[in-house]
Amino acid sequence: MDIYDAKFPSLSRFLTGAGGVGAIMVTFVLFVETITSGNVALYALLFNIPFAVGETILGAEAYFFRDWRTLQAVAFVPL
Fold first, then answer.
1. Residue 44's closest CA among 55, 62, 31, 26?
2. Domain total in the chain
3. Is residue 5 classed as helix, strand or coil in its secondary structure?
4. Which of 24, 31, 29, 34 is nearest to 54 (CA)?
5. Tell me: the pLDDT tens digits for 55-79?
6. By CB distance 3.0 to 4.6 Å, which of 16, 24, 27, 65 could disulfide with 70?
7. Residue-wise pLDDT tens digits, 31-49
């Protein structure tokens, strides 16, 4: 598999996404299980707010930067 072939970036993006979802699920479950108060739903909601904010920011960036390569650079350079 050549690194410049379209299959390699697609496979690496898929594996990264699958691993990221697994890590987030484990973190969420551990977070919810350590809460002892009756406000589990509130804390679960607060845990997920940064993800919604991130998707909103990405949507705003995609509105201004229509080319996907430019969008990738703008979205991931701050990291």
1. 31
2. 2
3. coil
4. 24
5. 999 999 999 999 988 998 898 887 6
6. 65
7. 888 887 788 888 888 888 9
Q: Do residues 43 and 36 make contact, with C-beta atoms less than 8 angstroms apart?
A: no
Indicate whether 69 and 57 sit together in one domain.
Answer: yes
- Estimate the share of the chain in helix, then strand, then coil, as percent rounded to the nearest 5: 80, 0, 20
For residues 30 and 48, state if they share a domain.
Answer: no
Tokens coding 1: 């598999």
Mean pLDDT to the nearest integer, 17-31: 85
- Clarify whether residues 30 and 42 are in a common domain: no
Same domain, 52 and 78: yes
Nearest by Cα to 43 from 29, 25, 53, 55: 29
Whether 24 and 48 share a structural domain: no
Could you write out the DSSP letters of every residue in 30-46?
HHHHH--SS-HHHHHHH
